Amino acid sequence: MAPVVAILLAAVVAVAASLLAPAAAELTRVEHPPKSEGSLSILAVGDWGRRGQFNQTLVAEQMGLVGEKLDIDFVISTGDNIYDDGIANTSDPLFKECFTNIYTAQSLQKPWYIVLGNHDYTGNALAQQDPAIREVDSRYLAIAKSFIVNSEIADFFLVDTSPFYLKYWNSSKYDWRNVAPRDTYIETLLKDLDDALTQSEAPWKIVVGHHPISSGCEHGNTTELQQLLRPILEARGVDMYVNGHDHCLQHISSRNSPVQFMTSGGGSKAWAGKFKTTSDKIEFIYDGQGFMSMQLSKTEAHLVFYDVAGNVLHTYDSTKTEDDEH
């Protein structure tokens, strides 16, 4: 456990240092180095926090098994962490019931880097980012609404997508503290993301958000993200966009850019039986529960989608040379 504690403490120290940095407009950055041989293994899961119900516990068990096999470095949550309405405060028992008491496998006792989903925003959105929540469970690193996890061979840009949705913004049930005014918030976020992507020297650039840009599942494409976020990803050489929101697993390839769209929103309730069309190419779609793994080196990426029983449903491999790195 000592290495885990060291990593978590290093992450917290890095966050504290970045928050004190004079360049306040920049996205918060967390340093999470890869393994000594230059590899990185992660799991990605979303839409999970249901007190173990809707097969959340079964998905968690399989995550633990795969996590042990791959010796994962960390977990990414694509949002909707606590249903139905987030948490009320940092001592809300829902937090332990949905997170701590479910993801108990030894392999999952690693940092969890968290974005908020729309269901998190209908509760106390700031509570999930409060440092006090890490006193309850030190793994839970929802350290800012948008931030960067730098792993040398990959930069992960976690982006707060809920404010982009106009239908959310016009509803009184969302916690928009530290977000309003919306136009300024989005403009600043997009500029900071564009700057960070431009400056990134990592071989792999991976953007994570709750809402899909391109999707063939129930919610379908997100118009606001298609208009505002997608052009930046395409212009700045992003390799993958990973999201949740749609309670399914899918891999979609862009028809006009190298960007790959990956949905990992099968952490609990799924099987909606509703599909949408998208102009991009659907490589794989599974309207059920599960999660995704990602193994990275400087020149190779290997992604695997698993179902609730741990069966491999789909794999994706990508390679790049030094000339491809950006």
Task: Write out key terms for the chains shown.
326 residues; alpha/beta; Purple Acid Phosphatase, chain A, domain 2; 8-stranded mixed β-sheet; 24% strand; Metallo-depent_PP-like; signal; metal-binding; zinc; Calcineurin-like_PHP
Written description of the protein model:
Residues 41-248 form the Calcineurin-like phosphoesterase domain. One of its GO terms (cellular component) is extracellular region. InterPro entries: Acid_PPase, Calcineurin-like_PHP, Metallo-depent_PP-like, Metallophosphoesterase_PAP. Its cofactor is Fe cation. It is a single chain. The protein is of the alpha/beta class. It has helices at residues 2-20, 56-70, 93-100, 118-121, 133-136, 166-169, 182-199, 223-228, 230-235; strands at residues 28-31, 40-45, 74-77, 112-114, 140-141, 147-150, 154-159, 204-209, 240-243, 249-253, 260-264, 281-286, 290-296, 300-307, 312-319. A hairpin with a 4-residue loop joins strand 14 and strand 15 (312-319). It starts with a helix and ends in a 7-residue tail after the last strand.
